[in-house]
Amino acid sequence: RGNPNPLIQVGDLEVDLRDHRIRRDGQPVELTAREWALFEGFIQRPGMLLSRQQLEDRLYAFGAEIESNTIEVYVSRLRKKLGRDAIVTVRGMGYRLETHET
Question: CA 53, 54, 59 angle in degrees (round to 5)?
Fold first, then answer.
């Protein structure tokens, strides 16, 4: 798993996996621990669909009860910080990180 280059570029986001840092258009983006846990799931599989269950599993590590709208709340927070189009909803299926690749 040791990625020799922990910097990943996805769209206008530059992600440093080792230091848990994100820059959007060169500006730092601050994420909470839970936001990072969800975001990390997306960044490990850019462009791939993640189900609600897969995302909920990432939050269970925090030991808190997962409410029915928890994923929507965190996806909304990530969109505010990373850009509205950064995470795409696939109705009835889940979410994916938009890579802007053609």
Answer: 90
* Residue span of the structural domain in which 92 resides: 7-97
Average pLDDT in the chain: 88
Partner residues linked to 96 by β-bridges: 88
- Reduce the DSSP state of residue 19 to 3 states and report it: coil
Task: Say if CB 70 and CB 56 are below 8 A apart.
Answer: yes
Q: How many domains does the chain have?
A: 1
pTM for the full model? 0.85
Q: Which amino acid is at 95?
A: Y
